[in-house]
Specification:
CATH class: Mainly Alpha
Shape: globular
CATH superfamily: MFS general substrate transporter like domains
Mean pLDDT: 88
CATH topology: Growth Hormone, Chain: A
Strand content: under 5%
Distance between the termini: 48 Å
Number of strands: 0
């Protein structure tokens, strides 16, 4: 059964109602859990007396389990289809949320966070896989943009709405509610989403050697050298440390910090919907390749972080929004990789890319916490300005080699 023929059997409304929305809601939930600790952190620290290092490890546990699951999840999606995979994994995520609500120490919460990350690890790739069955290829880029925007809405929901909810219920009750919310897309997928056609299902697992082909591809390595560090920094900091930075350095209250994070996460939606159009416009107007657009974006992203290192306090609100808005440039990584690697590698390349992004986010988020925890907090458990300046400087240093390498390649190509 061909995807175009299958799509013809559905109206646009039916396609959105039965395929896009159920899977996109799962993607929405994954972003809620990914970003929630930026607001939740002070409550966890107060309740469990966590250090900055423990807080960074706890939050980043989501990324490491999410990332490590990408290879087996990608293979499972190809073999069993996104419908079956999502039904199982969303149940695991709900269990993780319940265990988080019941946890009484760092170890218990860490395990629960790992389970949650594992359970939500197929939300993005599963959505893309499901849409590929029912949507014609020329329409996929715009649909993917909508999917990314839904993720941004999830990140927004994890900021001010969570802070407001915590005025009426404690964080443990909130995670019980989130467990129920996590089961909603699973139920909708089970009762509403049609079964996938059996085309292109793999009958056996690919070998590890076939996966390593991706890392040997020169175009793949060049792309990730520029964009992977920026992607990891964007994911790692906006999901936790931007909120702490706003309170400890900017002096904002929990409510004001959550409000600014809400605006910043809204910028993700704007950026996700705009970056594709900007890239296409730059190509038509100036003949720029997507990688060059990405390089300029990474340069701007690094500049924003340098402003954070310089601690220009009046610019903190602008820095916060610019960080999330410009950080969406890293999303071009998926498009550039898909266009650059051989067609036979595109599926494995996307899966390997996800693994690297989330492992990188784990390193950045936990590493940022370890750097900050070198300094002692005050009585209110706020860390000094120099702690965050040092951590942001380390983040900048992580991104500079790939950015400089891109500049040198671009300079050499312009001289030919």
């Amino acid at each position: 059964m061909e995807s175009s023929n299958t799509e013809a059997r559905f109206s646009t409304a039916a396609l959105y109602a039965t395929v896009f929305l159920p899977f996109a809601f799962g993607h929405y939930v994954s972003f809620v859990f990914r970003a929630i600790n930026a607001v939740l952190a002070p409550y966890l620290v107060e309740s469990l007396q966590l250090s900055a290092a423990q807080l960074g490890l706890l939050s980043s546990a989501y990324f490491v389990s999410f990332g490590l699951a990408q290879l087996p999840v990608g293979l499972a999606l190809d073999r069993y289809g996104p419908r079956r995979v999502q039904l199982v994994l969303l149940g695991v995520a709900a269990l993780g949320s319940l265990l988080f609500a019941a946890g009484n120490g760092f170890g218990a919460l860490f395990i629960a966070r790992i389970l949650t990350g594992l359970g939500l690890s197929a939300c993005f790739m599963g959505s893309i896989k499901a849409l590929s069955y029912w949507v014609d290829t020329p329409k996929l880029p715009s649909i993917h943009g909508y999917l990314l925007a839904v993720g941004g809405l999830g990140a927004m929901s994890a900021t001010l709405p969570v802070e407001l909810a915590l005025q009426y219920l404690n964080w443990r009750a909130l995670f019980v509610v989130l467990a129920g919310v996590t089961l909603v897309p699973a139920l909708v997928i089970y009762f509403v989403t049609p079964h996938e056609p059996l085309v292109d299902r793999i009958t056996r697992w690919p070998s590890l050697r076939s996966l390593l082909e991706v890392y040997r591809d020169r175009a793949f390595r060049r792309t990730i050298s520029l964009l992977l560090p920026a992607h990891a920094v964007a994911f790692g900091l906006q999901g936790l440390w931007m909120g702490q930075w706003l309170q400890d350095v900017g002096g904002l209250s929990e409510r004001h910090a959550a409000t600014l994070l809400f605006i910043g996460m809204g910028a993700i939606v704007v950026g996700s919907l705009s970056i594709g159009n900007i890239t296409e416009w730059a190509g038509r107007r100036f003949g720029m390749k997507p990688l060059d657009v990405a390089g300029i974006g990474v340069g701007l992203f690094i500049t924003v972080q340098v402003l954070a290192v310089l601690n220009i306090v009046p610019l903190i609100p602008v820095i916060t929004v610019a960080f999330t808005l410009i950080g969406t440039i890293a999303g071009l990584e998926y498009t550039i990789v898909a266009q650059s690697v051989p067609p036979a590698l595109t599926g494995r390349a996307a899966t390997c890319l996800n693994l690297l992004i989330f492992f990188g986010a784990f390193v950045v988020q936990s590493g940022f916490g370890f750097i900050v925890s070198v300094w002692q907090p005050d009585a209110a458990r706020h860390y000094p300005v120099v702690a965050f300046q040092t951590a942001f400087a380390a983040a900048v240093a992580l991104q500079l080699p790939g950015f400089v390498a891109w500049l040198l390649r671009r300079r050499r190509s312009s001289q030919r």
